User: Fold this.
Amino acid sequence: MLVILSAGIAPGLALLSYFYLRDEYEAEPITLVFKTFMYGALITFPIMFLQYVLEVEGIIDSNWSTAFISSGLLEEFFKWFILMFAIFQHVDFNDPYDGIIYGASVSLGFATTENILYLVANGVEHAFGRAILPVSSHALFGVIMGYYLGKAKFSSREERHKWLFIAISLPLLLHGTYNYIFLAEKNWIYYMVPFMFFLWWLGLKKVKSAHRLTEKKYSGTNFEKEII
Assistant:
């Protein structure tokens, strides 16, 4: 069991450390980052219960609805809700890059719990594949969500609603696409590899953009015209 726990936790902590250490300005409080991680871990169970109910009741009856509603919508909405409820107005969310840290944190909390449960049920031999695909994809969905929450936090009231909408809709679309490739494509590996390269490219691009936004904030420059 110790081996499974270690294999289940290590990828999430490694990815969270990576994004945390890329903060070029004021480091976020470890306690708040850990709390956000734990919020993500705890929402795993109500999400799994709702997914089970949707499946048993026959509401989810196709690959598309499984990918985009049961997985994409439910999981990304809960993450977005936690970030909006517990983090968005927090005093320590004080620059645009912070959104990426907290977005990755809540996503990796969820992914880590899901990963441990999967390894317990299916064996530790799946640990490497899980780290490369589900755990890292959740981290990147969180990075993208956090990037747009960071833009929303420090934009004008007129711009804020647009960024908040993109903060949930874009990760939902990407998450649904990720799951749909697994469910609908027989030779899924040929589609998944380029999709993951794209996801990493997009996530790292948002990290660079968040650094630019944070630099502009500290220099007093208006950044609302930053490219989406």
Observations:
- The chain has a mean pLDDT of 91.
- The helical segments are 2-21, 30-42, 44-56, 63-87, 96-122, 127-153, 157-184, 188-219.
- The CA atoms of residues 9 and 112 lie 6 Å apart.
